[in-house]
């Protein structure tokens, strides 16, 4: 994934889209204040210059899908692994929630799921059927939207689109 830092305005639309695409539930203000919010993309702000000539720069921070991911080597159940496509993946039903991977992640984009996910109505209608809803007690991580990658591979295999992504 590529982010054009010169065009980023810090609007956090990417954060909202990621949450919606990956079925990440929202939590209350009290839980967020103690660090229990899950967000696989965050937008950090950096200030340049001195007053009154101050400018702000925005830096989206997301999982970098590390080649030699430190989160993979510390997992005692091998729930965190490197898939054949080079993505850092997670087997949620193998995870026992030790949080070792979260401590090892240099980008701090792994989160412990403290609650059984729930969505107030009508937000439950926006859930993505291609993404599992993870249970309480597991570590959550960016999947790099592997469901979209797999869907494109299926369309290519069926001959609906070319390998370059054009409709046939």
Brief write-up:
The protein is an alpha+beta fold and 168 residues long.
Task: Walk me through what this model shows.
The chain is of the alpha+beta class and 168 residues long. The chain contains five helices and six strands; from the N terminus they run H-H-E-E-H-E-E-H-E-E-H. It has a two-stranded antiparallel ribbon with strand order 1-2. Strand 1 (41-48) and strand 2 form a beta hairpin. The longest helix has 12 residues, at 146-157. The chain is globular and about 60 Å long. 16% of the residues are buried.
Secondary-structure map:
Layout: H1 13-21, H2 29-33, E1 41-48, E2 55-62, H3 70-74, E3 80-82, E4 88-90, H4 100-104, E5 111-112, E6 139-140, H5 146-157
Antiparallel strand pairs: 1-2, 3-4, 5-6
Q: How do the helices and strands follow one another from N- to C-terminus?
A: HHEEHEEHEEH
Q: Outline, from the CA principal axes? A: globular
Describe the biggest sheet?
2 strands, antiparallel
Helix content: 10-25%
Placed side by side, the strands forming the largest sheet appear as 1-2
| Cα distance spanning the termini | 25 Å
Number of helices: 5
Strand content: 15-25%
Which structural class matches the secondary elements? alpha+beta
Strands, count: 6
Q: Rg from C-alpha positions?
A: 18 Å
| Poorly predicted segments | none
In round numbers, the mean pLDDT is: 88
């Amino acid at each position: 994934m590529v982010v054009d830092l010169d065009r980023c305005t810090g609007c956090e639309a990417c954060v909202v889209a990621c949450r919606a695409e990956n079925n990440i539930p929202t939590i209350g203000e009290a839980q967020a204040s103690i660090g229990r919010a899950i967000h696989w993309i965050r937008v950090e702000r950096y200030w340049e210059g001195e007053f009154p000539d101050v400018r702000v720069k925005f830096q989206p921070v997301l999982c970098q899908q590390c080649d030699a991911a430190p989160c993979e080597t510390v997992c005692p159940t091998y729930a965190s692994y490197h898939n054949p496509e080079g993505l850092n993946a997670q087997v949620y039903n193998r995870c026992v929630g030790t949080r070792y991977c979260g401590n090892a992640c240099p980008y701090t984009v792994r989160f412990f799921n403290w609650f059984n996910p729930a969505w107030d109505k009508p937000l439950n209608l926006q859930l993505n059927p291609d993404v599992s809803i993870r249970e309480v007690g597991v570590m959550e991580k960016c999947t790099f939207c592997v469901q979209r990658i797999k869907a494109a591979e299926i369309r290519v295999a069926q001959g609906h689109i070319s390998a370059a992504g054009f409709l046939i």
